[in-house]
Amino acid sequence: MSYKQIKWMILIIPTLAVGIWEYARHAFLMPYISMKVGNFLTPVFLFFISMTLLSMLFRRLEQVQEELNRERAEKAALEERDLLARELHDGIAQSLFLLSVKMDRAESRGRGARESADFQELRKSVHEVNRYVRQAIANLRYPESPEEREYQASMRSRIEHTAKETLIQPWIEWSIPDAALSAKEKVELLACIREALLNIHKHAHATKVTIKGTLDGRGWTVFVDDNGRGIHTDPFHLKDRYGLRIMKERAEELGWKMLILPMQRGSRVEIRKEAHNH
Predict the structure, then answer these.
(1) What's CA 216's distance to the chain center, in Å?
(2) Class of domain 153-278
(3) SS3 label, residue 109
(4) Separation of CA 242 from chain center
């Protein structure tokens, strides 16, 4: 029942009820109910209608009004978050990208060993800041309905969203309960999965990607498999794999084990939290 319908019912029901009562009283009940008693019963009857049916309508009206106010507040908050996300994307993210391009040009001119090491450290910092900004942009964009928001809060949905950002459509097998991961673990694990997908998109030329998360007692394991070109050397020591090195460092800070393993076809990124880690 809409807000407008409830208001019209509140206006019409008392008038209609009193009209029917007065008509019935004068047409059929006059031999049984005197005028004095009838005049006394009319406000009693109206009071009974107000305390039962009208009170229910008023409660429903208050609920509808609260829902409307909540929707307005949520819409305003979503608009502010979306605006902030756009400002982050158009401002900081684009500036970081431009800075990365300029660093590439400066590094290509040729420098000594010391300058080259400084450039690597700078590139690493830029890459890490860019990762944090991208994660902040993703976290700012919430869906509108409560049902969608609850789904968005799940790790599986966040992985799907991350995969869309990296232009990869993986097959996802996820059985790790959200309660098994802390808020910090969710953020860092998503960042690791995103970096793995970006690396696959840039270097592996894979046609199939699988993301699998399994629970092992109080620990868990996440696999990101692809059927791409595979690996032939330690990727953590390659010159341009800053993201992978940062990902491994962040995982080790949380006490996780991270490996990149060759498979018969393609490669596997494995992130594992042992049961004794908290």
Answers:
(1) 26
(2) alpha beta
(3) coil
(4) 27
Q: What angle do CA 131, 267, 204 make, to 5 degrees?
A: 60
What was the pLDDT predicted at 87? 62
Angle at CA of residue 26, ends 22 and 28, nearest 5°: 110
* Annotated domain spans of the chain: 3-74, 153-278
How many Å apart are CA 69 and CA 256, to the nearest integer? 45
Interval 74-101: pLDDT, tens:
777 667 766 666 666 666 766 766 676 6
Handedness of CA 191, 140, 137, 118 (dihedral sign): negative
Q: How far is CA 257 from CA 174, 243, 253, in A?
A: 19, 16, 10
Report the alpha-carbon distance of residue 271 to residue 249 in Å, rounded.
12
- Cα(267)–Cα(260) distance, rounded to whole angstroms? 7
Tokens of 133: 């900004």
Q: How far apart are CA 94 and CA 82, in angstroms?
A: 17
pLDDT in tens, 32-44: 888 888 788 888 8
pLDDT at 9: 80
Q: Is 157 helix (H, G, I), strand (E, B) or coil?
A: helix
